[in-house]
Amino acid sequence: GAGVSQTPSNKVTEKGKYVELRCDPISGHTALYWYRQSLGQGPEFLIYFQGTGAADDSGLPNDRFFAVRPEGSVSTLKIQRTERGDSAVYLCASSSSTGELFFGEGSRLTVL
Amino acid sequence: GNSVTQMEGPVTLSEEAFLTINCTYTATGYPSLFWYVQYPGEGLQLLLKATKADDKGSNKGFEATYRKETTSFHLEKGSVQVSDSAVYFCALSGWGTNAGKSTFGDGTTLTVKP
Known about the structure:
By secondary structure, chain A is mainly beta. Chain A has strands at residues 5-7, 10-13, 19-24, 31-37, 44-50, 53-56, 65-68, 75-79, 88-95, 102-103, 107-111. In chain A, the strands form two sheets. In chain A, strands 2, 4, 5, 6, 9, 10 and 11 form a seven-stranded mixed beta sheet that branches. In chain A, strands 1-3-8-7 form a four-stranded antiparallel beta sheet, with no helix packed on it. The N and C termini of chain A lie far apart (33 Å). The relative contact order of chain A is 0.33. Chain B is an all-beta fold.
């Protein structure tokens, strides 16, 4: 596709469950980013991939959060033992170089 | 660390009014500065950018100038339209070892009434 694609667009889960969120970046973009956006706030950095490797994962809040990008294209954000405080919109972005970000429409996660 | 402070909203204007949304930042190194916009029901998209001091970014009638001396990047438009109603985010890119980490403000909601 032409833009960044994220699935699912909405996910409702119960506290303690495992969740995977998928991001398909713009073809050819080597850099991929995950951000989290809570209501009324700006996007908060989670992790950045350059190719297959995580170049900076300093924004992951704790070890329940993990992300992979095994072939340097699609990425999956994994959240274990979800908590109500994890409820937010998870944004994925890609870029051809660091700088301008191209965002997907986000995956809205609700933890009950 | 880097930070971005935006004018709090919401901002409500009449069509054809002048718009200013203030943005100031703190950063190390030489970041690029951005304004992103999020229209209702859509994802964030780049509105304009400036990569070095005194650069002016412009797009769709919006402008912002990278002012290093005042650490500001205020967004302006001379005559807003109803279609400009959206949430506007000021952001800066990381620099050096933090090059992949952009920092965003909390957003300013603009509503333009006919």
